[in-house]
Specification:
single chain; 320 residues; Ribosomal Protein S5, domain 2; Alpha-Beta Plaits; 6-stranded mixed beta sheet; 38% helix; 24% strand; binds (3R)-3-hydroxy-3-methyl-5-(phosphonooxy)pentanoic acid
Length: 320
């Protein structure tokens, strides 16, 4: 009747931006991501609660705005004829700020829901179910470096490397605390409909995806750095060229990019990526992590830093 699960957010190096099917929430493009370790979301789902309809508490606060999305995700697993659920979510990092909180939340939600209603699913099926609610959530079912290939009927999510097979680190520079002005779903639709670059973005994605996958399998950091930065800037070009334009960056975002360029010019193994928000994620090798931390800390406009290694996929937590 009740179960709790934990998942970590993931950061895409080859981005998902745009959908081929809105009803099924199927991405238009394949993506490749790293699952993080020290940032987490825990979700508990309790079907035995004495409530008339689903309730959702996020970090102790009732959050009716998210309830419909969460209830729909639970319906996919438990069916619509189910008892109402009390859902409690807790996390140790900001929500809705471009830090992939929906990825860890929906990944944890599908694992907790399946256990709470006594169903056993293959991880791939859970990934597909999570992906129906949030495209990027599918990738958080697995740890380490993960690929998501998009088909016309369903997605296929695969672990490419375990977290300890290539000890990358991710340093997140938080440059703004508030929630983003346009959610990724609405922003993608705008890009699909209005950006003159959208078709070209979709057309070239398989090449970028293939290059990144080869770079990961051969542990070629420089090749992964070049293709990841290129893919990130291309996604933001689609956002910037949408009408009206979507610019998630602030001046500190740009300052972080300058800092990373300067670290690269002094030989550090580091590259940037940026999602639907103003935060900058620096991906680096362990030997460069301290220098990256110091340089980003000294960058104007950086409010705080989060440092993490790569982590595991979503998991069920032991019941109390
Ligand atoms: O899964 P969504 O709907 O939150 O979209 C994620 C979009 C990006 O984070 C910008 C890119 C990605 O692949 O995670």
């Amino acid at each position: 009747m009740k179960a709790e699960a934990q998942a970590q957010p993931n950061i895409a190096l080859i981005k998902y931006w745009g959908k081929r099917d809105h009803d099924k929430n199927l991405p238009a493009v394949s993506s490749l991501s790293v699952t993080l370790d020290s940032l987490w979301t825990k979700m508990s789902v309790d079907f035995g609660a004495e409530v008339g309809s689903d309730t959702l508490l996020v970090n102790g606060v009732p959050t009716p705005a998210m309830e419909q999305r969460v209830s729909h995700c639970i319906d996919l697993i438990a069916g619509t004829e189910r008892d109402p659920a009390s859902i409690v979510s807790e996390g140790n990092f900001p929500i809705g700020a471009g830090l992939a909180s929906s990825a860890s939340a929906f990944a944890a939600l599908v694992v907790a829901t399946a256990a709470a209603c006594g169903k056993t699913y293959a991880t791939q099926t859970l990934a597909q179910l999570a992906g129906t609610s949030s495209g990027s959530a599918a990738r958080s079912l697995y740890g380490g470096i993960v690929t998501l290939t998009a088909g016309d009927e369903h997605i296929d999510v695969q672990p490419l490397l375990d977290p300890d097979e290539w000890p990358l680190e991710v340093i997140v520079a938080v440059t703004e605390k508030g929630e983003k002005p346009v959610g990724s779903g609405a922003a993608m639709i705008r890009g699909e409909k209005t950006s003159p670059f959208y078709a070209s973005w979709v057309k070239r994605q398989d090449d970028d995806f293939g290059t990144a996958k080869d770079a990961v399998l051969s542990r070629d950091f420089e090749r992964l750095a070049t293709i990841s930065e290129h893919n990130c800037l291309k996604m933001h070009s689609v956002m910037w060229s949408s009408r009206p334009p979507i610019v998630y960056w602030n001046s500190a975002t740009l300052s972080c990019l300058e800092t990373i360029r300067s670290l690269q010019s002094t030989g550090h193994a580091v590259f940037f990526t940026i999602d639907a928000g103003p935060q900058v994620k620096a991906v680096c090798l362990p030997e460069s992590a301290a220098a990256v931390m110091d340089a980003l800390k000294a960058t104007p406009g950086v409010l705080s830093l989060l440092q993490t290694k790569l982590g595991a996929g979503a998991k069920l937590l032991p019941s109390e």
